[in-house]
Specification:
The chain is built from ten helices and 15 strands. The chain is an alpha/beta fold. The chain has one domain: Aminopeptidase. Strands 2, 3, 4, 5, 10, 11, 12, 13 and 14 form a nine-stranded mixed beta sheet that branches. A two-stranded antiparallel ribbon has the order 1-15. Helix 5 packs across helix 9 and helix 9 packs antiparallel against helix 10. It is globular, with a radius of gyration of 21 Å.
C-alpha cells in the first residue's frame, strides 16, 4: 500500500483547520456579542436572576431583571421575553417596556432575555441569520438571533430522557434545555431548571400577581395568535382578548392550558404559586417549515409566497395576505395584550392595581415602527446602558 506523504497530511490538516476557523468564527463572534437596553425613566432598580438563586451568578444563564416601581403601592406583574430566543418578538416587546414605561402604581418586573444561554446559541443547520436589525431614527439597532434551547456549551450532557421535576412526566431529552419545559424548576437541577426556579423565587418572594410570558408560533400551528391561560387566569384572558379585538381591531383568541402537559410556564406558575400566569403567542411566519430561505428579511416582514399559497388553500391558522405578518404587528400585539391583561386585572382588584403609562400600543407600533421607541445607547448615560 502506498504511504500518504507528510506534505499531503499537513495540507489536508491545514485545510480542515481553515474550514473550522472560517465556519466557527461567526459563531464565536455571535456568542461574544452583546445586546443593549437603555433604562428608561421608569426603571428604579436592576437586579439579576442570580439574586434569587446565587448558583446562577457568573454563568451564561444569568440575566438582568429590570424593576419599575410606582410612587403608589399596588400589585405587581412579571413580563418575560426570549424564553425561546428564536422568537425575539418577546425580547423586543420587553425591551420597549424597559426603555419607555413609567409605572404610576404597583411594580413591573421585566426580564427581556429570560433564556440568555439560548440567545447565545444559533441554528446554522437551518440557515437562520445570526443577527437581525431594526431601523431607528438614529440608525440600525442590532440583536442576536438565538435558538429555542440553551446552548450545549452551557448545559451538557442531555439526558436520554428528561424526567420533569417534580411531576415525573417523561419529556424529550432536548426539553431539559427549554425554559418552557423546566418550570417550576429546582434549585439543585440543571442550569435551565435553575433559571425557572429562580424566576419562581422572584414570583413567590415578591408576591407577584401576574406573569406574562411572550412567545411566537408558526402560522401553521393551531396554538398561535392567542393567549394561553389556565383556569385561574381564564376570565382575565378572555376579557383582554375581547377588548383588544373590539377596541384595537386585531384577533388574539384564548387557549386553555393543558392540565396533563407539564413544565409549561402557563401551567406550573399557576400550580406552584399564587401568581396568575399567561402566555402570549404571536404568529411568526419565519418559523414555518414550508417557506423560502430563512432570511433576515423574512423575519422582519413575514412575507412568503409559499405561505401565501397555503393561505389561499385555507391551510393556515391565521389570516395571511400579501402584507405578510411584519414584526411591528407581532410586537405591537404583545404590548397591547400585556397592557390589557394588566388593566383587566387592576379593574377587578383595585387594591392590587398596576398602572402603567407611556408604553406604545399596537396601532402606534404599526404606524411608527419598533425602532421609533428605542433610545440611542451611544448618546445615553453609560450607567443607563445595560448589556447582556
Amino acid at each position: 500500500m502506498k504511504k500518504v506523504s507528510s506534505t499531503f497530511k499537513i495540507t489536508a490538516s491545514a485545510m480542515v483547520l481553515a474550514l473550522l476557523v472560517v465556519g466557527g468564527w461567526p459563531l464565536y463572534r455571535h456568542r461574544a456579542s452583546s445586546m443593549e437596553v437603555v433604562c428608561g425613566p421608569g426603571v428604579t432598580e436592576i437586579l439579576m436572576l442570580s439574586d434569587f438563586l446565587p448558583d446562577l451568578r457568573n454563568t451564561a444563564a444569568d440575566t438582568p431583571v429590570f424593576v419599575l416601581s410606582g410612587t403608589e403601592p399596588g400589585g405587581s406583574a412579571l413580563i418575560i421575553g426570549n424564553t425561546h430566543a428564536n422568537e425575539p418578538e418577546g425580547l423586543l416587546a420587553a425591551a420597549l417596556i424597559v426603555e419607555n414605561a413609567v409605572v404610576k402604581k404597583g411594580t413591573l418586573y421585566v426580564i427581556p432575555c429570560f433564556n440568555r444561554s439560548a440567545s447565545l446559541n444559533t441554528r446554522p443547520g437551518e440557515g437562520y441569520p445570526v443577527y437581525f436589525s431594526v431601523e431607528t431614527p438614529w440608525g440600525k439597532k442590532k440583536f442576536r438571533m438565538g435558538n429555542r434551547d440553551a446552548s450545549p456549551l452551557d448545559q451538557w450532557p442531555d439526558p436520554d430522557v428528561y424526567i420533569h421535576f417534580p411531576e415525573k412526566q417523561m419529556l424529550s431529552y432536548l426539553d431539559i434545555r427549554n425554559t418552557n419545559r423546566t418550570w417550576p424548576g429546582r434549585h439543585n437541577g440543571m442550569p435551565m431548571e435553575q433559571v425557572t426556579f429562580a424566576a419562581m423565587e422572584l414570583l413567590r418572594n415578591h408576591k407577584v400577581d401576574l406573569a406574562i410570558d411572550l412567545h411566537g408560533a408558526e402560522t401553521m400551528f393551531p396554538v398561535t395568535n392567542c393567549i394561553v391561560a389556565p383556569e385561574k387566569s381564564m376570565r382575565i384572558a378572555t376579557l383582554a382578548a375581547l377588548t383588544v379585538k373590539a377596541v384595537e381591531g386585531f384577533e388574539s383568541h384564548v387557549e386553555s392550558s393543558p392540565e396533563k402537559f407539564r413544565g409549561l410556564s402557563h401551567r406550573e406558575i399557576g400550580d406552584y404559586s399564587d401568581t396568575l400566569p399567561f402566555l402570549l403567542e404571536a404568529p411568526i411566519p419565519f418559523l414555518d417549515q414550508p417557506t423560502g430561505p430563512k432570511s433576515e428579511q423574512l423575519f422582519l416582514d413575514g412575507r412568503d409566497e409559499f405561505l401565501l399559497s397555503l393561505s389561499r388553500r385555507k391551510k393556515l391558522f391565521v389570516s395571511y395576505d400579501e402584507s405578510g405578518w411584519p414584526l411591528e404587528r407581532r410586537v405591537g400585539q404583545h404590548l397591547s395584550v400585556s397592557l390589557e391583561i394588566i388593566k383587566q386585572y387592576s379593574r377587578r382588584h383595585p387594591g392590587r392595581a398596576i398602572i402603567v403609562e407611556n408604553v406604545p400600543r399596537y396601532s402606534e407600533v404599526v404606524e411608527k415602527g419598533i425602532g421609533y421607541y428605542f433610545q440611542n445607547p451611544a448618546t445615553a448615560k453609560k450607567e443607563k446602558v445595560i448589556t447582556f
